[in-house]
Amino acid sequence: MNHLTRTRPAALPIVALVAALLACLCGEARAQAPAPTPTASPAPAGGARTTRKTERQGAFIAEIEDDESDPVITMETDWIAMRLYPQAASTVVRFVFRPTQNEILEPTMPKNMASDGPGGGLLQDNVWEQDWRFQELRGKYYDYKITKSGPEEVQVVFETKLDGWLMTKNSGIKSRLLENLIIRRTVTLKQGTPYFLFDLDFATGDDDAKLPLYWCHNGARINLAAPDHMLRPSDLGINRLPTPTGSDFVYNFNHGWSAEVSPERKEGVVFLMDYDYLSFLYNCGVTTSEWVYDNLLVTKRRPVHSRIYVLPTMGLEKVDHATEHFICQLKPIRADGRLRLQYKVVSSYEKARKITFVPEVEFNLLDAQHRKETLAPVEFTDLSIEPTTRETTLNLATSDPLKIRTTAFIDLADGKQITRTFDYFHVGDYAMGANITRDLKSPVALLERAKQNPYFPVPEADQKIDRDQFNVFAILGNHSRVLKLEDAIRAARPDAKLDVGYHPGFFVSQTGLTDFPYDYDRLFKYRALVLNNSVMDIVRGVGLFILQNYIQHGGGLVLGGGENTFGLTSYNDDNPIYKLIPYAPGTTIVQQPSRLNSPATDHPIFQGVDLSDLPWQQYVQKVTPRKELPAGAKLRVLLKAGDEPLVVEYNPGEGQRIMIVLALPFGDPAQHPGQTPLQDWPGWKKLYGNIVRYAGHDL
User: Higher confidence at residue 388 or residue 39?
Assistant: First the structure.
């Protein structure tokens, strides 16, 4: 990282602490202060040393050292004081929001990054393909450079490059999709703003596309006397921990934020992240706030940029919605046969001249016919870090549960108006205690969930499949080597070139695909792709989109059978790629000794294959054709195992070839004398090689 260099001048000055803040950092004071203290400075992290004192004004940044002579970056404004450790993956390890004078990171021992404990600190880098305890980013030193030194703004840029290990550091297995991935972190504090910016940039350090499952980990303690509450938005309502209905993993998130709040202290931290790239939200109970990004396709032509806002709050007992313009707590209150909606709102990172909330209450949710009433609007002006409370009333008796939709009309300083809408599910005194009906499966009401819109690349207009060479790419799941697929592909033609991405074929924690050609320049050099015993979602949404484009441009696909194919391991059947597959989700594999039969001998795949003594399979895979195939699509069974299809050709459109091979290497040959297994049949390699060649328009 030649453009980012660590500089080590003599330690820069820090002013003396005011007594209240010093006591806070020593764990002696945790009371809320009435206002920010512009010149107060918390004690340097880890007993950081300085050599002289001086007055300073505005935003401030410095390089100092802790008692262990490790470098520390200290950043301060009139609102925030924070510390970052370059040698601990540039994690934020001390954080004080000055109005509350509450150090939220010190109790989590954030410097203990090499242990099996959760590790404290804000904004730790991780990739899901690696075990968080033993991954290469844990405790890694990041190069850094201070790029802005105040007084209006301070900024430091950190950078590292991944070795690309899977599972653990030095595991012996690397993923080409992680290797040489550059992560650049830019941390910015602006004077006069009660939040900080965290910019993430991902770039490739070579010519290969990268696709990390980036995972941001935050460990903080706002209140040492009682558990903090973790709040995540979902299409069933706020998923809250600790509650009986809360859960660690939230896959049905419907907005790009999460929050950690102490109801007792009425303090919290709100994280706003990129909704389009979320895979799931996660909290390890009430000890960490985390989220995982998906579809972060990084190519040489197109690096990826994302921004995370970290916003401290005070005066809120909970968070029910957060946007760039406001953070809101909503509390329905019943009194005198009426419903009062109390909105408590604080500012976010973008200013607004006025915000008008218009609530709509939907009730009688347990009846066949729901009712809706629109309430009188409430207005907010001059929002700040201190809450503003407004109420509106429904003068009508209703029973719980309720669905409340709030439309926020936001008037900007330039005269423009934008809208933001959020739903709230109110359980109230509903007997089930959650958004669920008495069948214990169906929700009472689903809240609005916007469609994600990540960047998916499209081929250039003149890009075509390269058929001058015989290049094949394969994703090989379990049992592929038992079937000798690699040997068969390499033997198909003397000049055959095979590249392989390995994977168990199903989704498991911390297991990554070792390779896939996510950039069209590389992808279109392959005449055929082979996916064997692998749920197609392994390549994730962006990969499915790319694969669909590949097939529609004439690239061949060989889809191999197994327990992960056609949905024994669940997949996203809503993705358009599955409309190019002739079999419906759901498959069964049964022990049913069956001899191969009924070869379509006129088909090119049987050229040079001796069919006089066909082999056996001890297990067969039962598949169900889709009820409706695209107009003009052709489906032909070329070889059977008993009564079930074994080799199938499917042509969803003109010039498109998909070959399906439901080969299963299960069963002990010693228990079935005289029944040659498919993988040991002398004609198997030739037949499979021909299938791949045919898919690639080479036969």
Answer: 388
Q: For residues 600 and 620, is the Cβ–Cβ distance under 8 A?
A: no
d(CA 648, CA 72): 62
Beta bridge partner(s), residue 328: 321, 345
Q: What share of the chain is helix, strand, coil (3-state, %, to 5)?
A: 10, 35, 50
CB atoms within 10 A of CB 591: 9
* pLDDT confidence of residue 517: 97
Beta bridge mates, 200: 185, 306
Digit-coded pLDDT (tens) for 654-667: 999 999 999 999 99
The predicted model scores a pTM of 0.88
Q: Which of 77, 102, 84, 91 is nearest to 45 (CA)?
A: 84
Beta strands in 100-213 (DSSP E): 102-103, 121-127, 143-149, 153-161, 181-190, 196-204
Query: Whole-angstrom Cα distance, residue 551 to residue 529?
Result: 9
Structure confidence at residue 82 (pLDDT) = 95
Question: Between the CA atoms of 159, 162, 167 and 173, what dihedral angle is there, to the nearest 10 degrees?
Answer: -170
Q: What is the pLDDT of residues 146-203, one digit of tens each?
A: 999 989 999 999 999 999 999 999 999 999 999 999 999 999 999 999 999 899 999 9
The β-bridge relationship of strands 402-411 and 354-363 is antiparallel
Q: Could you tell me which of 183, 255, 182, 267 has the C-alpha nearest to residue 224?
A: 267
pLDDT in tens, 466-504: 999 999 999 999 999 999 999 999 999 989 999 999 998
- How do beta strands 497-502 and 471-476 pair? parallel
**Could you give the C-alpha distances from 676 to 491, 646, 670, 682, in angstroms and in order?**
21, 16, 10, 10
Task: Read off the DSSP letter of residue 631.
Answer: T
SS3 for 19-36 is HHHHHHHCCCCCCCCCCC
Q: Considering only 206-215, 228-237, 621-630, 683-692, which range has the smallest mean pLDDT? A: 621-630
Q: What is the crossing angle of helices 485-492 and 684-695, to 10°? A: 60
Q: Band of the pLDDT at 646, cuts 50, 70, 90?
A: very high
Distance CA 695, CA 452 (A): 33
- Residue 37: count other Cβ atoms within 10 Å of its Cβ: 17
> Which residues make beta-bridge pairs with 475?
501, 531
Largest CA distance in the chain: 93
CA atoms within 13 A on the CB side of 530: 31
- pLDDT score for 111: 61
Instruction: Please report the pLDDT score of residue 4 as a whole number.
Output: 60
**What is the per-residue burial (b if ≥16 Cβ within 10 Å, else e) of 630-648?**
eeebebeebbbbeebbbbb
pLDDT of res. 112: 55
451 versus 43: the higher-pLDDT residue is: 451
Tell me which of 35-39, 382-386, 666-670 is least confident.
35-39
Going along the chain from its start, the domains and CATH numbers come out as 19-217+298-311 (2.70.98), 321-426 (2.60.40.1400), 471-695 (3.40.50.880)
Residue type, 496: A
User: Residue 194 gets which letter from DSSP?
Assistant: S
Strands (E), 113-264: 121-127, 143-149, 153-161, 181-190, 196-204, 214-219, 229-234, 237-241, 249-250, 257-262
Strand 634-641 with 616-622, pairing = unpaired
- CB-based contacts of 333, cutoff 8 Å, min separation 6: 339, 340, 341, 342
